């Protein structure tokens, strides 16, 4: 299920004992009840953003745990699903920072297809139970993803929002890559998030790295 572009840098992870135990755990969880996202979308972030095309890596925590919400990209929800609070706050900051209108949906695939890797630290979750798959091995795997991007000669921008994400800072060579960090956009810390202008910082770094700009506008999907 691992996308081809990531096979060379991550393929060995799937053969390690921790990952085999993790895979067994997730399958046992699926046998007991709903687990999100669906099996075919667990690696959706890696599938949408090939390894050599990553310009920006945004790190989330774990998938949305409501039915039909998460589809494998952090902060993103499927078309037709109400935009979650954290993403609404991201949109508000994007509007205030760059002037882009707030879209009518929370489907972030347009970002992913432009080289924005929307990676959760934990890639699965039990229905209705946030952080239920935390500490089962996903963090080891996604740390390997972060390292793989950080090991490239081509620089990237790492976006670490909140204390949880900032713990990943030691994995990144800040001499070659750019790190944009700040408060998490959740309602609990939004006051500190608002006004941080992360998108201006990301755009500046992307340009400095010689990459094509990211168009942050999300098209309206209509009702």
Automatic annotation (TrEMBL):
Ranges of residues in domain Uracil-DNA glycosylase-like: 47-206
Pfam families, A to Z: UDG
Cited InterPro entries: UDG_fam1, Ura-DNA_Glyclase_AS, Uracil-DNA_glycosylase-like, Uracil-DNA_glycosylase-like_sf
Membrane-spanning segments: none
Alphabetical list of PROSITE patterns matching this protein: U_DNA_GLYCOSYLASE
UniProt keyword list: Cytoplasm, DNA damage, DNA repair, Glycosidase, Hydrolase
Sample GO molecular function, one term: uracil DNA N-glycosylase activity
Residues at the active site: 62 (proton acceptor)
GO CC terms, sorted: cytoplasm
Listed GO biological process terms: base-excision repair, AP site formation via deaminated base removal
Catalytic reactions on record: Hydrolyzes single-stranded DNA or mismatched double-stranded DNA and polynucleotides, releasing free uracil
Places the protein is found: Cytoplasm
Main location as per UniProt: cytoplasm
EC number(s) recorded for this UniProt protein: 3.2.2.27
Record HAMAP family: UDG
Family per similarity comment: Belongs to the uracil-DNA glycosylase (UDG) superfamily. UNG family.
Function: Excises uracil residues from the DNA which can arise as a result of misincorporation of dUMP residues by DNA polymerase or due to deamination of cytosine.
Protein's recorded name: Uracil-DNA glycosylase
Species whose genome carries this gene: Streptomyces armeniacus
Organism taxonomic ancestry: Bacteria, Bacillati, Actinomycetota, Actinomycetes, Kitasatosporales
């Amino acid at each position: 299920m691992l996308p081809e572009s990531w096979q060379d840098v991550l393929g060995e992870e799937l053969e390690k004992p921790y990952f085999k135990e993790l895979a067994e755990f997730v399958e046992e969880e699926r046998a007991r009840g709903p687990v999100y996202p669906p099996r075919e979308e667990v690696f959706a972030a890696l599938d949408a953003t090939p390894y050599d095309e990553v310009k920006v890596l945004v790190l989330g925590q774990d998938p949305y745990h409501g039915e039909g919400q998460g589809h494998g990209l952090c902060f993103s929800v499927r078309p037709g699903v109400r935009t979650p609070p954290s993403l609404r706050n991201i949109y508000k900051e994007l509007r205030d920072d760059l002037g882009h209108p707030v879209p009518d949906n929370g489907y972030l695939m347009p970002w992913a297809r432009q080289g924005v890797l929307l990676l959760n630290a934990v890639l699965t979750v039990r229905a209705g139970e946030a952080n239920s798959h935390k500490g089962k091995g996903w963090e080891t795997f996604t740390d390997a993803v972060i390292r793989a991007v950080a090991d490239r000669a081509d620089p990237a921008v790492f976006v670490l929002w909140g204390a949880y994400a900032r713990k990943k800072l030691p994995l990144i060579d800040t001499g070659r890559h750019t790190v944009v960090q700040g408060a998490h956009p959740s309602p609990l810390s939004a006051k500190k998030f608002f006004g941080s202008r992360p998108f201006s910082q990301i755009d500046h770094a992307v340009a400095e790295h010689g990459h094509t700009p990211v168009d942050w506008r999300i098209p309206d999907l209509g009702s």
